[in-house]
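Bit of a strange request maybe. I'm writing a small parser for structure token strings and I need a real example to test against, not something I typed by hand. Could someone generate the tokens for this chain?
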Amino acid sequence: SAKVDKSHITKETITSTASPIQAVTTLGGVDSHAALLALDTNAQNEANEPERGNWTGRFDFLLSLLGYSVGLGNVWRFPYLCYNNGGGAFLIPFTIMLIIAGLPLMFMELSFGQYAALGPVAIYRRFCPLFRGLGTGMVIVSAIVMLYYNLIIAWTIFYMFASFRTELPWQNCEPEWSTENCFSYEMADKCEALNGTFYLRICYNATYADEHNITEMTVNALKRPPAEEYFNNYVLGLSSGIEETGGIKISLAICLFCAWVIVFLCLCKGVQSSGKVVYFTALFPYVVLVILFIRGVTLPGAVTGVLFYLTPDWKQLANAQVWGDAAVQIFFALSPAWGGLITLSSYNKFSNNCYKDSLIVAVCNIGTSFFAGLVIFSIIGFLAHELDVDVEKVVDQGAGLAFIVYPEVVTRLPISPVWAVLFFVMLLTLGLDSQFALMETVTTAILDKFPNLRQYKTWVVLFVGVFGYIGGLGFTTRSGMYWLQLMDKYAANWSVLLIAISECVLIAWIYGSRRFLNDIQGMIGKRSRTWIMFWSIMWRFITPATLLFILFFNWVEYKPATYGHYIYPMWADAVGWIVGLLPVFVIFAVAFQQICKAPDSMSLKERIKYLLKPTPEWGPAGRPRINLHPERYESENYDPAANTSILTEGLPTDLSIYEDNLTVIYHNGNGDGNGNDGNGGMEDEALQL
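Reply from user aminoacidic:
Good idea to test on real output. This should exercise your parser:
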């Protein structure tokens, strides 16, 4: 095909009365029946399917994306990493890793999902049949994480309701759940005020303590704060190991049920309902963080804690561990390759500026992480001051920070129940946003697979919720915490990194980064050559190399699973490996199946090459695809990605209403697959008829 002189393009007829739709264009004044247009039969089928639905507004999506990307890890993991890896200096590798790994992956997946308006399973089925298992692998990861993530939400519900009393239940060592090692600093202070010695929950007078060497014994005694024993013994009913399952904790099972009910009510109408809930769940944590910051910095010892957090140790920048931790944190903070980003963006309008959304969320993520660190360390500094110990003695991360350190802090504040309720409601909203996206990923996969079920979406959400609740009951047993830690270590680790690397290779190399960037420009508008070159280099070289570094770093730093001082048995680690490698196994199994199903007349090499090409169904969201060469569908060598097509601006298939606004995506046939025409130009041109 030769270059087309746009000035000579005229339109004679565009009709929608024939089936398939036919139109005749005049190129250069010559009637060209070689440009016979046939509506893709798959597009006709899509028109008959129930609509997927869309976000009711741009901010619905933006806040949902913000809530998904800014989660519990920003509050309970990033501050610890910052303290442990050079204080303020850690922000440098963290920001760099955000730019070269986190942001490119987020932008890629948001564009990918928005362009096709499909969830991860359906999009890879059309985009690359050989690796259609990639989408299934993403959904498996989200489904596994969804099961135990809601248990963390259940814990916050438990603590939230437990805080509605005049005195917090973990303020003192109650005989109901405490051991002899429980040490209440409040009771110890009262005992010392009476010139006594507090030991094994008993206040001894000075004379008796001296006669029986009790004062000396207290120095070497094992001391556990009430908040720790309350969490382990009362809330979890923690057993001695993963082998000792024990029974289901009824209180946790009830809280887990409440958590799933909340998720169901918020998602029962899909993004139309969750898009409104996120106005509260995504913004409320910032309100609480500001309140806690104002209160925290006014506490004695807060300045020491904040300085401990911010003081940079520039020597740490030469430590590979610091860069590895930064890369891992930003990768798992933004959660690419889980399917959530593709799912959320698939409900966008075709023209939504997903590039701007990516930048906003990336900046908010790093800003939230940094600010949360100020809040947490001001509070930790206060606790260290109260206990008269160094800050490093009380600093913690993860569940230990949220359910042990902070609850211990609030017992020392006036009107402590108020501060406890605020904190746990904040954790609840942070967790719910992430859970919404995880569950939406699973339900979207089901609805894209069975489009006729879209009219019964509420029942599908209910089915997934019931499945999630039953599957999550195992985590409410006395050994549930051990299983949660095991799943958290293996379920979304190496498999997610491998999926992300595969995604970069498929989109940037096989499909072509330039072609993909052309698709993006069709949504957000034309961009400069510098912009195109930057993202092409990122997706083709820098981001995959960074992901390989993260993967290698994880392998080098691998250690068998532990929880505190408990070391998991070998069989438990084996179970973790099986769960972690399950998505990868599915990817290869589906690829093998696709190769076997390919035409027998093809060699293995031809089958692989054929299956790496997009299917005829691949194309922009909600746009009927009109192919100039429908007979090429019959050919085994048909390349849909290079197929000339006309894309209409809108969802209806009645093209007559677009007589004044019809766009032809013209392909000159000389492309290299990466967006180049072989002559320095772009292989696709949008011509206005």
